[in-house]
Fold this sequence. Notes:
This protein is of the alpha+beta class. It has helices at about 1-10, 15-65; strands at about 70-75, 80, 85-90, 90-95, 100-105, 105-115, 120-125, 130-135. The strands form 2 sheets. It has a 5-stranded antiparallel β-sheet, covered by helices on one side. A 3-stranded antiparallel β-sheet has the order 6-7-8, covered by helices on one side. The chain starts with a helix and ends with a strand. The model has no long low-confidence stretch (mean pLDDT about 85).
Amino acid sequence: MQNLMRFRHKGYVLMEVFVWMFLISVMFICFFDMLIFNSKFYFNIIDSMDSRINTQIAMEFLIDKITNSKNISFQNGILYVDGKKIYLNKDVLIYEYGSTPVVDKIKNFTVLDLGNGLYEISVESKHDFKKIIIQKR
């Protein structure tokens, strides 16, 4: 009987090893699942913030160009400000043909002439939409 007791606690039973491996693997799966979820959530927030910043930049650019211009017309998605074009090309707002882009990730923008020097500007991106009415100087 003493020989049995002495040999009984020298190692682990195969079933104990499998249970420990299962528990550790469940812990790792939960940890990595949480890590992946948090990284997706973080990148979603960053994308949303970038979209809002780009919408604000586009809005401020259009406000500046319209308030300081002499002649404005909006035809077929192209804004003409003092004879220079402002338009969208593949979600990029571009000022004049072949020039550097103003801002990217803009889905749509419109400028409506409300009369008496009033203009309604709207800019839309993936996560944001801004609309404002301005008066030309």
